Amino acid sequence: QVQLVESGGGAVQAGGSLRLSCAASGYIYSRYCMAWFRQVPGKEREGVAAMYTGFGGGNIYYDDSVKGRFTISQDNSKNTLFLQLNSLKTEDMAMYYCANLGMGYWGQGTQVTVS
User: Fold this and answer.
1) Cα separation of 48 and 31, whole Å?
2) What are the mean pLDDT values of the chain's consecutive 10-residue runs (115 residues total)?
3) Dist CA 107 CA 98 (whole Å)
């Protein structure tokens, strides 16, 4: 059974930082492109960052709105994807989702609140 479980969300002040985690299980982790998306009520879900998890990780993508502030990374030994969020802005406030793009699986989301 494939599972993606996000954690690490919370409430921070503008300028603060958070580290989101996505623990993957039920499949061979290092074979797929994984991504972070975010969504606010009333708006479409938008891609934030993505990377290929094989061969040590590569083909990293960032949306222009987060370049230089967010960093996607992974710990293959723990089948875990991360998203480091720095210099947070109020417009970053959203529900953040982890996704396995190759298999079409999504996590339940973790809320990031910036005030």
Assistant:
1) 20
2) 96 98 89 95 96 85 97 94 98 97 94 98
3) 5
Can you list the alpha helix ranges (DSSP code H) found in the chain?
none
What distance in Å separates the CA atoms of residue 5 and residue 101, rounded to the nearest whole number? 15
Alpha-carbon distance of 14 to 102, in angstroms, equals 34
Which pLDDT does position 27 carry in this prediction? 84
Do the beta carbons of residue 19 and residue 8 sit within 8 Å?
Answer: yes
Eight-class DSSP state of 40: -
Q: How many helices (H) and strands (E) does the chain have?
A: 0, 11
Spatial separation of the C-alpha atoms in residues 81 and 44, rounded to whole Å = 23
pLDDT of residue 39: 98
> According to the model, what pLDDT value does residue 3 have?
94
CB 49 within 8 A of CB 101: no
Backbone angles phi, psi at 4, to 5 degrees: -125, 120
